[in-house]
Amino acid sequence: MKKQISIKTLYLVIPCYNEEDTIDVSAQVFKEKMHTLILDKKISKDSKVLFVDDGSKDKTWNLIEKLHDDDKMFIGLKLAHNAGQQNALLAGLHFAKEHSDIAITMDVDLQDDISVIDDMLKQNMDGSDIVYGVRSSRKKDSFFKKFPALSFYKLMHLMGIDIVYNHAECRLMSRRTIEALEEYTEVNLFLRGIVPQLGFKTSIAYYERQKRVAGKTKYSLKKMIKLAIECITSFSIKPLTMITFVGLMMFLVSLGMLAYCLFVKVTGNTIDGWTFIVSSIWLVGGIQLLSLGVIGEYIGKIYTETKRRPRYIIEKELN
Fold it and tell me: For the whole model, what pTM was predicted?
């Protein structure tokens, strides 16, 4: 007797922020893909495309409402304010967990090749609770896009942070992994760092990164730097250790300089040292300010965590 394979309900979780130029085109691609998967009996007919509007200031939510009116496969969540991509993803995953067996998160601009869904579903059927969508190469990227990205992953590795190389937010998660994710209640959220800590069986699905279907990217260099700082300060204390090491080295150098000054004083070879003194003051002062800044980042994290404010607030729901 053949083993009966249950057809799982899939929710595609798509975060959106000011995507009025993109969402209609993307929605049709998602719709065609979902219908194909349903016809092939790879997913249940109850599967949905969930758009999460992260407090957009344009007509994004109005377009989501229109999509929902035309086809109930499209559903939506509207956050009351711009909570950030990570919190928008989390809101979508929490909602999807209540109504589906598996959830796949993807970008609305279709840069994540939608054909990777088939591979993800296959690997999930083979037992993987988490399937990471990973770029197969960065040959199409310019130097100014490739260099910061590669530097980011190398920096994360240097800081001892467990992060999947060339993986962004395209991933499949089973219901039980999302339930485990709910146990992580920190306000300073970085899913790429948290998900690998969940455990469970994982695998990788490779795909080619595509061009945006429309609109402009919302991910500037400033946001990338902010994301890197968020990741480092949320998952590693190595910067604090480095400050301690630098402080120790400066202390040893200062002892050496003290011995040198005493020697020069005793031998009577004192000379004007204006350049040396000024440069030393600037060097030590710069190191002190940098150290205070790093410590301040960690204190700021503690401050926001102790407030226990909600990570997102849902204003409207289409389901």
Answer: 0.75
Asked whether 173 and 140 are in contact (CB, 8 A), the reply is no
SS (H, E, C) the chain: CCCCCCCCCEEEEEEECCCCCCHHHHHHHHHHHHHHHHHCCCCCCCCEEEEEECCCCCCHHHHHHHHHHHCCCEEEEEECCCCCHHHHHHHHHHHHHCCCCEEEECCCCCCCCCCHHHHHHHHHHCCCCEEEEEECCCCCCCHHHHHHHHHHHHHHHHCCCCCCCCEEEEEEEEHHHHHHHCCCCCCCCCHHHHHHHHCCCEEEEEECCCCCCCCCCCCCHHHHHHHHHHHHHHHCCHHHHHHHHHHHHHHHHHHHHHHHHHHHHHHCCCCCCHHHHHHHHHHHHHHHHHHHHHHHHHHHHHHHHHHCCCCCCEEEEEC
| Residue indicated by tokens 């994290």 | 301
Closest C-alpha to 10, from 82, 57, 77, 73: 73
Question: Which class would CATH give 10-236+310-318?
Answer: alpha beta
> On the CB side of 15, how many CA atoms lie within 13 Å of its CA?
21
List the domain boundaries for the chain: 10-236+310-318, 238-307
Cα–Cα distance, 25 to 108 (Å, whole number): 9
Which two structure tokens, joined as six digits, stand for 2? 């053949």
Residue 3 scores a pLDDT above 50 = no
Per-residue model confidence as pLDDT tens digits over 86-130: 899 999 999 999 999 999 999 998 888 899 999 999 999 999 999
CA distance 8 to 75: 18
Instruction: Please give the C-alpha separations between residue 12 and each of 130, 172, 280, in angstroms, as whole numbers.
Output: 14, 9, 57
Q: How far is CA 258 from CA 251, 263, 265, 298, in A?
A: 10, 9, 11, 33
